[in-house]
Amino acid sequence: MKISLNRINDDFLFECTNSQGNSILLDNTSQPGAKGVSPMESVLMAVAGCSGIDVVSILKKQRQEITDFKAEVEGERIAVNDAKPFKSILVKFFLEGTVDPAKALKASELSFEKYCSVSKTLEPNVEIRYEVYVNGEKV
C-alpha cells in the first residue's frame, strides 16, 4: 500500500492520492478558507469508513436490508507535549431498513474487535467505543 502527497498551493493544501488515482484534500483547518480536511479529521473518517465497510458487508451477508447507513465519529484529544493525539473515539452507527438490531450490534462488535484495521491500529493508545441505532432506536 502506498500513497503520494503533493502540495497544491502556497500554504498547507495537499492532495493525497492512492495507487488507483483516487484522492482526498488535506489542509490546515485552523486557517481561514481551508479547502480540505485536517489530518486528524481524516483519521476519524478512516475509522468510520473502515468499520462502516465491515458492518455493511457483514449485514449484507446475513441478508439484512439496509436502506440507509450513516456514521458519526467524535474524537477526544489530549495534549502530549506539543502534539494532541486522540485519547478516545466514539463511533455512532445509524441504520435504517429491515435490520435485526441484534445482528447490527454483533456486526459492529465484530468490526471493532476483529476486522477494522484502522481501529486496530489506533487501539493500543486510543479507547474506541461505539453505539448502534436501528430505525431511530438505540440498540
UniProtKB/TrEMBL annotation:
Coiled-coil positions: none
Pfam families cross-referenced by the UniProt entry: OsmC
Name this polypeptide is given: Disulfide bond formation regulator
